[in-house]
Design a protein that fits this description.
By secondary structure, the protein is an alpha/beta fold. It is built from 12 helices and 6 strands.
Length: 325
């Protein structure tokens, strides 16, 4: 499970097919104004090269890819990228809504920080620091997800955003993707832990971690629908691209097939295979020294790779295009 991450020919082919299908849809799309909101899932932590290091915005994040469907670039006057790593519902509402009144399209991905996803990954998967322990942290995360505070904060954010949209504008709210294939047996004696070699990724643990994502998604979907916005399922597109997948023969596949980052995901192989960054950008990326680069590898785990972001952008665009035919 710790072999260096390499994009397989199959994965690259799937990305090209996905991009081609999306291209046929957005070929005649109008140029619009677009504001992405949210946390590091939306800012694209680690996906490509930094375009705004302060907020952790990257050039292969789904908002940047989605903007391209509408002929927008990161410097376009009608592309207002507000997504910022570390954001929560309350900070999005306080700091990121400045341009939504002018936007035709608004997207939102937020909630993971409030329910301590990253802390849960430490206590249950990586064990960088001593925490509460996996069971105690999972229970803490479950309570946070089901709390009235999260539901109220999320409702207030989505409701205010919808109320401020101009006529005809649309708000799309995404959930998160579940992390693992929880049915396969190959990971039962594998670990991602940096300190606890016998903390295996058992089916029970994978199911518990996926369950917290599923419950959070259900909360987000319910709040979104009740507030007049549109929920976008990004979990389904991730099927067959999570950790611990098996191929058609039943053999466990390498993490290189996953659309999530792991600690050992190799940047240069992703960018070289995708051909999405220039030589100058690659040199800039590789010039980023330690400890900043190590910090990025640490914080981007379980965030979408460029392939994952492409799938998210495609899911949002298809839903948008469904009512704009």
């Amino acid at each position: 499970m710790h072999a260096a991450f390499r994009l397989s020919l199959l994965a690259l082919s799937n990305l090209q097919i996905c991009t081609s299908a999306a291209a046929s849809l957005h070929e005649n799309s109008p140029t619009i104004s677009y504001t992405p909101l949210g946390d590091s899932y939306a800012s694209g932590n680690g996906a490509g090269v930094p375009i705004d290091p302060l907020c952790g915005r990257y050039n292969l994040a789904y908002p940047v890819l989605l903007a391209q469907y509408f002929s927008l670039t990161p410097v376009s006057e009608t592309f207002y990228n507000e997504a910022c790593g570390g954001a929560a519902t309350w900070s999005v509402q306080a700091q990121q809504l400045g341009h939504i009144d002018d936007s035709d399209l608004v997207t939102l991905t937020v909630g993971g920080n409030e329910v301590e996803f990253f802390v849960t990954l430490n206590d249950c998967v990586y064990h960088w620091w001593e925490g509460l322990g996996c069971e105690a942290q999972l229970e803490r995360t479950r309570r946070a997800i089901e709390s009235t505070a999260l539901i109220d904060n999320y409702s207030n954010l989505v409701r205010e955003t919808v109320e401020r949209l101009k006529p005809g504008a649309r708000l799309f709210v995404t959930g998160y993707a579940t992390f693992f294939n929880e049915e396969t047996s190959g990971c039962d004696d594998e670990t991602f832990s940096v300190k606890e070699p016998y903390q295996y990724l058992t089916r029970e643990l994978r199911r518990d971690l996926n369950d917290v994502v599923r419950v959070l998604n259900a909360i987000i979907k319910g709040v979104t629908s009740a507030s007049g916005a549109e929920y976008v399922d990004i979990d389904t597109p991730y099927r067959d691209h999570r950790f611990c997948e098996e191929d058609a023969s039943g053999s466990e596949t390498s993490d290189k097939e996953s659309w999530f980052y792991n600690l050992d995901t190799a940047d240069s192989q992703i960018y070289g295979a995708l051909g999405t960054v220039s030589q100058q950008q690659q040199e800039t990326l590789h010039s980023i020294g330690h400890p900043l680069k190590d910090f990025e590898k640490f914080t981007r785990v379980f965030h979408p790779t460029p392939e994952g972001h492409e799938a998210i952008a495609d899911a949002i665009f298809r839903q948008w295009a469904g009512k704009h035919k």
